[in-house]
Amino acid sequence: MTAHVAKPRIRMTMRGGQLVPVRNQAYEGGSSGRRMAGKGNVLSGPNMPIAHSLPLLQSRSHNAIRNNPYAGGAKESYVTNLIGTGIKPQWGDAQIQALWDRWVKECDADGIDDFYGLTSLATGSQFEAGEALARFRYRRTSDGLSVPLQVQLIESEHLDPNYNSLLSGRLVKMGIEFDAIGTRTAYHLWRYHPHEQLTAEINRRVPVPADSVVHMYRRTRPGQLRGVPELTSVIVRLYEIDEMQDATLARQKLGQLFGTFVKRKTTADTDDEGPDFGTLVTMPGEAENDPISEFTPGGIHYLEDDEEVSFSTPPDIQSQYTEWLRTELLALAKGAGITYEQLTGDLKGVNYSSIRAGLLEFRRRAEALQAHLIVHQWCRRIAAKWLDVAITSGALRIANYWQRRDDLLAIDWIAPKWAWVDPLKEVTADVMEVRAGFKPRSEAAGERGWSLEQLDAEIDKGNKSAERYSLVLDSDPRTTGKNGALQAAVEALSTEDEENDE
Question: Residue 323: pLDDT band by 50, 70, 90 thresholds?
Fold first, then answer.
């Protein structure tokens, strides 16, 4: 009796008057044929892969940045281009600005960095671990701070991605607690770093109100709760580049070790008139009958009877190594979000136009990260908390503050100005934009690290110094032009007025 085997049903549809299998009309990328078999077939939400892989991804990212110069350089380039000397606020109120400028020097709970140094450290943490965490630390007014508030930056490992629970109807997912409508209400943080190997009695999770925590990470999918390291997509390449470079170096070192191998003839191979090799010569520290365990550069190694030396012959890729490495580094730079030139410092074949085109694309991405990630998630949160504490502690007195709060927090955050290869073109473009009204002087000053009040005060000081020594500066177009023509005209009019008076 033959067993009956059911054949799979093939879905058919009409096309052009004929029945055609539905699979022939599907997207090729959504098929399960030979070319796409086993590729991305596991369906998952935005958080399950992160919860499963984040601890190991962070560990490998930390290790790569510690030991791989390309990874470390990528982090440095990322931070210096996004933050530079600091993304600074223009409050629009001299009293608030002065208090802020005092507080930035004392804001670090560890007492090491200022606010802009903390921002650089947080951005580096976001690149390396995928996210940055900070806690607001409220201080006593007796502590002598200009505003009784400090910021404590902690590593993201304090927030366990595998901690999930249901506490009295409140969902805790990946260490973050939510209320019934999905609003973050608390972060369950380890009291100490979980990898410090402290006992469970000492190191416990502590729920910290969400209002006291700043969580900065780059979200790439809706519903994503945690961030991943920026090197995630190229972490495998990083380690393979290391292995390839080690193998190439070992091959070159081994090639330099080859010396001379002497094989002695046996008695059966020689006759009475044959050559006599005499006494066996050994290398210093080498016993006569010891087997060869290592090579020495230029050494003479004697082989025993019936011994031969053979070497493996791996394919010669030396001529292709440079191009292979360049291709890998191009992919690494793309995955890290920077340019190849920034990653390697290799400017071979680069001209002004090509480097400018590459930098323009990078700077569009950097400006988006500055606005949506650093300013919105980090700077804005800290500035709002600082202003509230300054008012409630009495460090600032502003009438009708709570009615005016939104207007006062409408801050212009100015990032450092991008420096071009040709400073003359850069300054000329700034002058034209300011004179045409496309850019306020405050923004141009802020890009150079000045507040407008500081800049005007310094210019006024310079003008007074110039008057003392009878100098005329061309920074004021009302008194002189770049070629001195306006100055000469003013002097001529003054001379004419003096002659008429006489």
Answer: confident
Please, what's the b/e burial string for 225-256 (b: 16 or more CB within 10 A of its CB; e: otherwise)?
Answer: bbbbbbbbebbebbeebeeeeeeeeeeeeeee
99 assigned to some structural domain: yes
pTM of the model: 0.76
**Who's near 229: CB < 8 A, 6+ residues apart?**
57, 58, 61, 127, 128, 129, 130, 235
In terms of phi and psi (left: phi > 0; alpha: psi -120 to 50; beta: otherwise), the region of 108 is: beta
Looking up tokens 């390697």, which residue turns up? 344
Residues spanned by the domain of 165: 48-231
Among 35-44, 121-130, 300-309, 416-425, name the most confident range.
121-130
Instruction: Taking residues 484-493, report their average pLDDT.
Output: 60
Q: Per the domain annotation, does 461 fall within a domain?
A: no
14 pLDDT band (50/70/90 cuts)? low
Number of domains in the chain: 1
d(CA 304, CA 302): 7
Q: What percent of the chain has pLDDT over 90?
A: 44
For residue 109, being part of any structural domain is answered with: yes
Of 59-73, 280-294, 423-437, highest mean pLDDT: 59-73
Q: Do residues 128 and 57 touch, judged by C-beta distance below 8 A?
A: no
Helix (H) or strand (E) segment spanning residue 217: strand 213-217
CA distance 208 to 189: 7
The verdict on residue 310 lying in a domain is no
Is 47 within 8 Å of 222 (Cβ atoms)?
Answer: no
DSSP, res 374: I
How do 260-263 and 300-303 pair as beta strands? parallel
3-state secondary structure at position 153: strand
